[in-house]
Amino acid sequence: MAGHSPQPLSIDVPLCLYVDLDRFAGLPSEQVLSDEERERAESFRSPLDRQRYVASHLALRQALSEYTGLQHAELHLSKGSFGKPSLTGHARTQFSLSHSQGLALIAIGGRGPLGADIELMRPVPDAAVLAAEHFTRREQEALAALPAQERDRAFLTCWTRKEACLKAIGVGLLVSSQSFEVGLEPDCRSVELAVAGRILWLLLGPAPERMDCVGSIAEWRQTEARAGNASHSGRLLEAHA
């Protein structure tokens, strides 16, 4: 992919933090969360799942308030056609929230759409089966070649990198996770996704390192018209500058 990334490999996430959902204490949810969020919270049968959902969304709103300077009452979130949330009236504020059990990852930036994903470290006994369904052939072979004690972290690293990219572009299941390469290492790289006759360019990298989890962040930077589908001059179109 050399020569195809016109931007430095630096994701715009000035605010990136982990949140312990089981210890988080914020404003009462009825003062902060939307009606939709409160209804969603009530739909959880498990009290622990409900509490963690509420805590993650309160933490997100607190982070957005700190980042934008807006009061909680001024934060209005809306969803795109595939469910990706955005801050109404503040298109330059991009964010993503992910949580795994009691730990959440929040990323906020001011450039391209963001995708964040987190997984707590754990054994993954069916890693080979899942990799065959979701990873590229080269990623599957790289995973199989690793020593057994390294496979769980490598699998979760690749998994969160795939999810972060898909969350950044926000098109649901329209893109197969096997159609693009992210690798098993928590490196920084540009990633190419083909969607609806265009090439989407993303920057992908690790979240701040922790021993108890794996986290990844992706930022959608540019869009390029595919040769043959539109007049192609070789110029990249800044979709989210």
From TrEMBL:
<keyword id="KW-0808">Transferase</keyword>
<feature type="domain" description="4'-phosphopantetheinyl transferase">
    <location>
        <begin position="113"/>
        <end position="187"/>
    </location>
</feature>
<dbReference type="Pfam" id="PF01648">
    <property type="entry name" value="ACPS"/>
</dbReference>
<comment type="similarity">
    <text>Belongs to the P-Pant transferase superfamily. Gsp/Sfp/HetI/AcpT family.</text>
</comment>
<dbReference type="InterPro" id="IPR055066">
    <property type="entry name" value="AASDHPPT_N"/>
</dbReference>
<dbReference type="InterPro" id="IPR050559">
    <property type="entry name" value="P-Pant_transferase_sf"/>
</dbReference>
<dbReference type="GO" id="GO:0000287">
    <property type="term" value="F:magnesium ion binding"/>
</dbReference>
<dbReference type="InterPro" id="IPR008278">
    <property type="entry name" value="4-PPantetheinyl_Trfase_dom"/>
</dbReference>
<dbReference type="InterPro" id="IPR037143">
    <property type="entry name" value="4-PPantetheinyl_Trfase_dom_sf"/>
</dbReference>
<feature type="domain" description="4'-phosphopantetheinyl transferase N-terminal">
    <location>
        <begin position="31"/>
        <end position="107"/>
    </location>
</feature>
<protein>
    <submittedName>
        <fullName>4'-phosphopantetheinyl transferase</fullName>
        <ecNumber>2.7.8.-</ecNumber>
    </submittedName>
</protein>
<dbReference type="Pfam" id="PF22624">
    <property type="entry name" value="AASDHPPT_N"/>
</dbReference>
<dbReference type="GO" id="GO:0019878">
    <property type="term" value="P:lysine biosynthetic process via aminoadipic acid"/>
</dbReference>
<dbReference type="GO" id="GO:0008897">
    <property type="term" value="F:holo-[acyl-carrier-protein] synthase activity"/>
</dbReference>
<dbReference type="GO" id="GO:0005829">
    <property type="term" value="C:cytosol"/>
</dbReference>
